[in-house]
Amino acid sequence: MRKPYTLFVPGPVEIPPRAIKELSKPLLYHREEKFSRLLSETINYLRLLFFTRGKVFILTASGTGAMEACVQNLVSRYDRTLVISYGVFGERWKELLWRYGAYVDEVAYPYGKSPPLAEIERKIRTNDEIKFIFTTLTETSTGMVANIKGIGEIAKREGKILVVDAICGLGADEFYMDKWNVDVVCGASQKALASPPGISFLAINEKAWEAVEKAKSPRFYFDLRNYERFLTNYQTPYTPAILTLYAFHYSLKRVLSQGVKKLWREHKERASLFRAQLGDVEYLPDSPSNALTVIKMPEGKESTKIIKEIKERYKILLSDGQKTLKGKIIRVGHMGNLKKAQLLKVAAILKRYL
Amino acid sequence: MRKPYTLFVPGPVEIPPRAIKELSKPLLYHREEKFSRLLSETINYLRLLFFTRGKVFILTASGTGAMEACVQNLVSRYDRTLVISYGVFGERWKELLWRYGAYVDEVAYPYGKSPPLAEIERKIRTNDEIKFIFTTLTETSTGMVANIKGIGEIAKREGKILVVDAICGLGADEFYMDKWNVDVVCGASQKALASPPGISFLAINEKAWEAVEKAKSPRFYFDLRNYERFLTNYQTPYTPAILTLYAFHYSLKRVLSQGVKKLWREHKERASLFRAQLGDVEYLPDSPSNALTVIKMPEGKESTKIIKEIKERYKILLSDGQKTLKGKIIRVGHMGNLKKAQLLKVAAILKRYL
């Protein structure tokens, strides 16, 4: 297959050739020691990536699977929850919680806008039955990064369990699980970690683990209590995506050898470089992520058409808006195996269309 | 990584080098036409593999994920179900159904023994509230293949929905979904289809789809109604395991170009050859599968020790028994990229230890 386009979407991303090579290693049996070593190393890398001492679990599933795992393992029917949402993926928390019969209160902000902490605090204080807060580190649909540190301080002060979807931003935007008082966090392989899609993961601290033991929602494939039992031998309860895990292990090792903070810096530099080159355009988010740039279309321009033209003419794939934002924004991912020169080229091309 | 051993376990299996090569193809974006074509072809191949005109769904999950998808999408709390079980994976259906609050009646037979159809029929007739029957085509824990055709006739006659876990046997043991009156069936990538683990799939007919629309169990990541909506454009609702899907697509294409029946014949030949070479040993199942051979240990021999020795001495990996069968049986898989000469060698080696 000829390469049809280079991916500048906010995930999945271009994978380094060295990580791809990992996929052709001999298949290990998942009940053998060699596999256990691989799994145990990967879990330790993830602990460093999240900056946590909590438990870490690796799932054979997309990121949404990890989000559902959070809900199933924490929440029971009729539980009171708060969702702080500012886009499509915040809304996914709400939808998930509804499916499991939770009551959902909400601080919902317009796409691209960050809610003030005071408003979040007021909402929590006026509804003291809330047990869990669900929110998003980096909203892939708008390119906004949230003030998780601020939300974590409130959650801690008010004694709530804070659950963060870090699927998009992890590795690109600053994130400290323990220091920022985040109790549960989930991520996926195909974003800033530049691995093939198919694996997601989550971390959970002692305080939230108590809720896992008590939660009454039906769960099996994502039942963390079962994963916990198998982890005593560094195994997974079911056949994992073994080859994908090789590439993921490799990518994490590469990142961790230089430190997570270097990865954050790299993404920050990419974002600055790209935006400087792009010049005078209007951005959607008030607090932009380093993982992606989201550009508002000028009056009379339609993003869907522009994206199609750029794909056909330059073999560069950008992302359209989702749902109500379709045609109105262009989303450009800065994650994965991309060179600065490529980013500058994309900015230069885009400029001509805006 | 040096190859630590060749896999003769009943999945995951050795993958053909050509399928591994597929994993290094450029990553397609899952919202693009080229990916849709890949997905649509894969679904059509699966339809041929299952011998069905039903709907087919591909999941990024292990086989157990597909089993849970069957339960979530069909069964509501307090539903009456029947599990026909003869091993660890039959018991998994029971466990899953309990988690979702279903009532489970059971025809449970000792490991390796096939229940007579008359007993299954009697059980169904004496409990006419049963709506769903759950069973297993090939029980990986015992090497037994079930009489699904016979069970299907009863299910049809009695107006029940029949759900079959074909994760292990599919492609190795005969199976006709529509002709045998199976309403729902699930499978996985890493068995007779010789693909990397990480993908599972299921097929469902019109009659069972009515139950999907009515079922009240909480579900999101595996919600088939959502997959159905996205399939109108041949997309998946969440980022799929794109690279793994390339290898899976390749393997299915290869199988289908020669016909499923040829694959069954190949596995039957492998099983006969292996068992002929093995000579006079005692087998666990009364109705052995073509996917694997399960040997009972003679008096005074312990399988765990023998498996360890064969692994260390010959770099050949065999499977021990699970749960109560640990130490008492050896399970040898015949699936995947294995040559006849290799199978004969394994049989010759095993003979010396028995």
From TrEMBL, chains A, B:
Aminotransferase class V domain residues: 30-325
UniProt keyword annotation of Transferase present: yes
MF terms (GO), sorted A to Z: alanine-glyoxylate transaminase activity; L-serine-pyruvate transaminase activity
Keyword Transcription regulation included in the entry's annotation: no
Xref: SUPFAM superfamilies: PLP-dependent transferases
Cofactor(s) listed: pyridoxal 5'-phosphate
Pfam families to which the protein is assigned, alphabetical: Aminotran_5
GO terms under biological process: glycine biosynthetic process, by transamination of glyoxylate
Alphabetic keyword roster: Aminotransferase, Pyridoxal phosphate, Transferase
Taxonomic superkingdom: Bacteria
Chain positions recorded as substrate binding sites: 331
InterPro entries: Aminotrans_V_dom (IPR000192), Aminotrans_V_PyrdxlP_BS (IPR020578), PyrdxlP-dep_Trfase (IPR015424), PyrdxlP-dep_Trfase_major (IPR015421), PyrdxlP-dep_Trfase_small (IPR015422), SP_NH2Trfase/AEP_transaminase (IPR024169)
N6-(pyridoxal phosphate)lysine sites (modified residues): 191
Family as reported in the entry's similarity comment: Belongs to the class-V pyridoxal-phosphate-dependent aminotransferase family.
Descriptive protein name: Alanine--glyoxylate aminotransferase family protein
Organism: candidate division WOR-3 bacterium
